[in-house]
């Protein structure tokens, strides 16, 4: 079985313990590679290497860093097919999704920040002829970039690109559940002579090595994307060290369908928002609020659509959904489905594990699932399930739906469907979410501030916000 290796100081190396964990292909439930079970010693080596590299990388010009990031983006594009196949196999997502979204976004992230760093500007505050203040933005040091399993290379590059573009060096920790494309990226880095120590990747279990990384005295900045409980833990243990922290966490996003919407578009977008990537996107719309007048019609159209979705072999171009990421995660989703039934939820479609044939019979497949008759404030409508499960909730008025949408402890994203654009603006202004779409979903402009309110996170990344996060502002006041 192929052994995934850590990437430290430009070298692909074994974990110090020589202990590995099996990496499972979720489409068939079989181990197909081995992931390092790294520990604090490996983290310390990676941080040491990043600290040494910081002394030269932080002095490179913006143009030099931009060129190197673009070179890495070129190499990702040259290895496109290999990365697409690897992402699909490691995560269980359809090959078509990895080809359309994950891998193109990985190179786009690098190119975006390679460009942004050249076009950034900083503030000047003029004091009526007495003095001029200007702000320098300087890199901070070694950045810890911790990313989850749902969009592995996409979210890893979303963090490392701005960190490196601004002159920091990085120790990245991908999810141990989906380590493969991060490993392939490190192999690519080696091939293109990426400067040694600037990017380091340590694989392993977050619970074992996470604290060593986030509390390391030589790591002043931590960018984390993952679950809210892990975010809470990181926030707590790093607090005494006054680190710069960005947390992009979970969501339980409302999808609000008014009766004057473009009906067909609202149905197809709600289905996409519910089931893309098997519902494992933090931005998925898992609470679908539908205005009373069109509730029954919308319900039957959405259920009809969900029933027609093909759950199957991620490699097949016919599959709309592949496998969920792991057996543990599949069981967690199935437990939530049972809980929804116990709470009186009416199952409109799905609700079961799907057993495919042949090689795939032990894979982790779940049917697209739609519930109704669950109170807006019950546990199912408040906890993130992170699977292909949505609930339909009827509403009467704008005020009702705003109250219900905002009742969640999360506040990541929301979608609103209406042809009345004034209403769209009015409702959007009252919804407590960091990202709100009107008449669409997941339309991403890399320049926008991205992040959540309430338990969905702290801080914003994206565009110039990322460049700000990964730099320290230094004000200089010049007396005239
Ligand atoms: P987790 O919080 O379990 O893990 C995220 C990352 O943190 C993984 O690399 C994990 O490693 C690592 N980790 C775990 N424990 C620690 C620790 N003590 N210290 C440091 N790192 C640690 O999330 P999932 O991987 O399960 O991802 C799903 C979650 O991510 C969902 O809640 C989803 O909403 C959220 N998410 C949020 C996004 C956003 O932009 N707001 C985008 C995408 C996902 P390991 O896996 O090896 O344990």
Give keywords.
seven-stranded mixed beta sheet; binds NADPH dihydro-nicotinamide-adenine-dinucleotide phosphate; Aldehyde Dehydrogenase, Chain A, domain 1; alpha/beta; 25 strands; 39% helix; 480 residues; 14 helices; Aldehyde Dehydrogenase, Chain A, domain 2
Can you walk me through this structure?
- This protein is of the alpha/beta class and 480 residues long.
- The protein folds into 2 domains: 2-249 and 456-479, 3-Layer(aba) Sandwich (Aldehyde Dehydrogenase, Chain A, domain 1); 253-445, Aldehyde Dehydrogenase, Chain A, domain 2 (3-Layer(aba) Sandwich).
- It is built from 14 helices and 25 strands.
- It has a 7-stranded mixed beta sheet, with helices on both faces.
- Helix 1 (40-57) crosses helix 7.
- The termini are far apart.
Distance between the termini: 68 Å
By secondary-structure content and strand pairing, the structural class works out as: alpha/beta
- Low-confidence regions: none
Question: Number of helix segments?
Answer: 14
- Which strand order do you get reading across the main beta sheet? 15-18-19-14-13-21-22
**CATH architectural label of the largest domain:** 3-Layer(aba) Sandwich
Largest sheet: 7 strands, mixed
CATH topology descriptor of the largest domain:
Aldehyde Dehydrogenase, Chain A, domain 1
- What is the count of structural domains? 2
Small molecules bound = NADPH dihydro-nicotinamide-adenine-dinucleotide phosphate
Rg, rounded, reads: 23 Å
């Amino acid at each position: 079985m192929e052994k995934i290796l850590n990437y430290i100081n430009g070298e692909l190396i074994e974990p110090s313990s020589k202990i590995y964990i099996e990496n499972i292909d979720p489409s068939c439930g079989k181990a197909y590679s081995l992931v390092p079970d790294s520990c604090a010693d490996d983290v310390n080596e990676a941080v040491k290497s990043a600290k040494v590299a910081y002394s030269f990388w932080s002095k490179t010009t913006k143009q030099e860093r931009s060129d190197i990031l673009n070179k890495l983006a070129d190499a990702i594009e040259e290895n496109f097919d290999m990365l697409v196949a690897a992402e699909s196999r490691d995560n269980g997502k359809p090959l078509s999704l990895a080809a359309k979204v994950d891998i193109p976004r990985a190179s786009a992230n690098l190119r975006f920040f390679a460009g942004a760093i050249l076009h950034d500007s900083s503030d000047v505050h003029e004091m009526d002829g007495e003095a001029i203040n200007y702000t320098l933005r300087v890199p901070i040091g070694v950045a810890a970039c911790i990313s989850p399993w749902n969009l592995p290379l996409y979210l890893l590059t979303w963090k490392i690109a701005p960190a490196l573009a601004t002159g920091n060096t990085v120790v990245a920790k991908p999810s141990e559940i989906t380590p493969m494309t991060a490993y392939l990226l490190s192999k690519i880095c080696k091939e293109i002579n990426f400067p040694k120590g600037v990017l380091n990747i340590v694989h392993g279990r977050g619970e074992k090595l996470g604290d060593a990384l986030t509390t390391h005295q030589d790591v002043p900045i931590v960018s984390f994307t993952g679950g809210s409980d892990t975010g809470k833990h990181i926030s707590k243990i790093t607090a005494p060290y006054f680190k710069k922290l960005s947390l992009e966490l979970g969501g339980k996003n409302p999808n609000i369908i008014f009766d004057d919407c473009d009906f067909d578009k609202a149905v197809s977008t709600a289905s996409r928002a519910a089931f893309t990537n098997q519902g494992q996107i933090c931005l998925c719309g898992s609470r679908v609020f539908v205005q009373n007048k069109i509730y029954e019609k919308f319900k039957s159209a959405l259920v009809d659509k969900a029933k027609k979705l093909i759950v199957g072999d991620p490699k097949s171009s016919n599959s709309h959904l592949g496998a969920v990421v792991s057996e543990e995660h599949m069981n967690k989703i199935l437990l939530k489905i049972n809980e929804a039934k116990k709470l009186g939820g009416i199952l409109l479609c799905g609700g079961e594990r799907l057993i495919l044939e042949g090689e795939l019979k032990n894979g982790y497949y779940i049917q697209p699932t739609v519930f109704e008759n669950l109170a807006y404030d019950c546990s199912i409508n408040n906890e993130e399930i992170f699977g292909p499960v949505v609930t339909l909730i009827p509403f009467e008025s704008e005020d009702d739906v705003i109250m219900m949408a905002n009742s969640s402890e999360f506040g990541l994203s929301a979608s609103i469907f209406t042809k009345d654009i004034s209403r769209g603006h009015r409702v959007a202004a009252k919804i407590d979410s960091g990202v709100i779409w009107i008449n669409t979903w997941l339309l991403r402009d890399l320049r926008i501030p991205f992040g959540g309110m309430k338990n969905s996170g702290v801080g914003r990344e994206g565009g110039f916000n990322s460049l700000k996060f990964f730099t320290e502002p230094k004000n200089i006041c010049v007396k005239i």
